[in-house]
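[job 0412] stage=complex_fold ligand=4'-deoxy-4'-aminopyridoxal-5'-phosphate status=START
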Amino acid sequence: MPNPSYAFFNDKIIPYSEAKVGVLTHALNYGTACFGGIRGYWNEEEKQLFVFRPLDHFQRFIESTRLLCMELPFTKEALVKILTDLIQKEGYKGDVYVRPLAFYGDEVIGVRLHNLTPILAIVTVPFGRYIEKEEGAHVTVSSWTRIDDNVIPARGKISGGYVNSAFAKTDALRSGFDEAILLNQDGHVSEGSAENIFIFRKGKFITPPVTDNILEGITRNTIITLLHDELGMDVVERSIDRTEIYLADEAFMVATGAQIVAMIKIDHRPIGTGMMGEITRKVRDLYFNVVRGRVQKYRQWCYPIYT
Ligand code: PMP
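[job 0412] stage=complex_fold status=DONE, emitting structure tokens
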């Protein structure tokens, strides 16, 4: 992946090569940072780049900063403006990923959240797939337990918390799987290392509730809406047992980066037919049309970059 040319850093856009921190930086030592992950989709017919639900992403980003006691002097609208300026300056004409990061930049010793100064950084990069086998992933239930709300809140995208995801992801990949599913301390399903989870069983969609140590995913919300409004299917938000995934007719993971990943096998057991399910295929096709700005009804979710 080539480096971007620019970064928003602190209060302005500078060359990416100058957006640097020292080794004593608080966030680098103690994980006291939070981030976001937003996608922009290029629409070839309209020669337009649509960023998907940026206000919702920045709303959650600001909530993550609040969990870390940061006071960032930016509204979500101001953040969308920065993102727009940055992508325009890069001049991308293809799919992109946007990474906002707020971190404590003080070069001091001492673990805490108070008496520190947050710094905002935003970079944008060209981006393709996050998970190679989007059409059929073999997943595993991780031996690592999901971080609990009273450990590091998973509803915030807190940098330090992602070490939990990294443990699970590396072990899954080194064992030949495509992604890991983490269980809570009580044994219920929480989420993938960077994705929310949906299963379809006995004619119903089920996804873990926001109180089961999940990130409150924007894609999760998008999919709940599309399943309900376009496919006429309700999604039940309740705790899920591990073996309900084993017995599901269909299952998929959703996230901005991963998009919609069909889970076709879990721990060597086929899910449903062992191939992408029919509803999964439908909702996946619909999702890709929506994010690219091709469905008029959902155009309000698609923010155009070029004017
Ligand atoms: N869970 C985790 C742990 C994640 O990192 C992500 C990716 N941001 C998601 C779920 C999905 O969230 P979203 O749909 O907002 O990208």
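The chain has seven helices and 17 strands.
[job 0412] exit 0
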